[in-house]
Structure formats: C-alpha cells, structure tokens
Amino acid sequence: MNAHACDVPPPAGSLVLRPWEPADADALLDAYRDPAVQAGSRAPVADEEAAGIWLRAQEEGRAAGLRHSFAVLDRTLGDAPVGNVALFFPEPGAPVGEVGYWTVAAARGRGIAPRALEALTGWAFGTFAGTGLVRLELLHREDNAASCRVAEKAGYALTEVLPPSALWPRAGHRHTRTAHRN
C-alpha cells in the first residue's frame, strides 16, 4: 500500500474531501445521471454494478499510488457527496500528474469545484513533492467554458489547445500548474 493512501486533503471551509466509500454508490449513480458529468467522463457509471466497479477502482488506484480520488462534501448542502476531485499518475513517482473533477448540478455556481481543486492541488504538491511531482495538468473539452473558469480560479493556466483524440473526440484544453508558481 502507498504510504500516502490514508492522507486526505484538509477541509476547505465548508468542504470536506474524503475517500469514496461503498455507501456512496447511490450518490455516485445520481451524479452520473447528469449529462454534464457524463460528458466530461472517460468512464461513465450507468448502473449499480458499474458504480461498484468504479468505487473499487478508486480504492485499488489509491492503494497502488496511481489514483487519489476524493468525494467532495459541502457541509452546507448535507452529508452526501456533491462532487469528486481526483489526482492521477501514469506511474508512481511521476513528475507530472493529472487532476480532474466534477460537481453535481445542485453544487454548481457555489465555488465548490475551484475550492475542492485548490485543496487537492495543495495536498498533491505537499504530499508528492518528495517523490518528484513538479506539475499538474487539467484537461477538458474546449467547449466547456465552466471548466476553464474553474481551472483559472484554482491557479491553472491555459497552456495548450489539444486536437481531438481517441479519448476526447472533440478539441480540448490543457491547463497546468507547477509546484512553484509565481
């Protein structure tokens, strides 16, 4: 198990980031019924079986040190997850990681996504700097203006327009943030 698998980002105001739990399956299914969440996902969750697979994948990725996915809870909205933030590594000790996130419709427009992303970013650089992490990347579809705003609010600069690919059939944006930003 990765030495950092039990670490979690500190609370960010009313936000709490914690590992996903099996009891979150219904909230996960509800979130993936949202077309906006589906559109930004590389692995949609359509039913209970898929939710179980997704939840196990988060746990296994965390144990391997390759994926650190956190349910985002906002105490002002209740006890159920209202979003997800995740950090992905292509291999343990990689100098570049990728971050991603989503929020449910009821949580949008409240500043939850940028605050959760900022908390994840600070945690990632603090936790993995010793293993060589120097840059984080955020990728999204070019037509997703809301993701551009979230990236900018969390300190991720637009660095590249990406052509369509097998993973993303539409053009996209790459935003980056370095460990020692100016």
Written overview of the protein:
The chain has 182 residues and is an alpha+beta fold. Helix content is 31%, strand content 26%. It has helices at residues 25-32, 35-39, 48-64, 112-128, 145-153, and strands at residues 15-19, 67-74, 83-88, 96-103, 135-141, 157-162, 172-178. α1 packs across α3 (48-64). It is globular.
Summed up:
This protein has 182 residues and is an alpha+beta fold. It contains 5 helices and 7 strands, in the order βαααβββαβαββ. It has helices spanning 25-32, 35-39, 48-64, 112-128, 145-153, and strands at residues 15-19, 67-74, 83-88, 96-103, 135-141, 157-162, 172-178.
Topology:
Blueprint: E1 15-19, H1 25-32, H2 35-39, H3 48-64, E2 67-74, E3 83-88, E4 96-103, H4 112-128, E5 135-141, H5 145-153, E6 157-162, E7 172-178
Parallel strand pairs: 4-5
Antiparallel strand pairs: 1-2, 2-3, 3-4, 5-7, 6-7
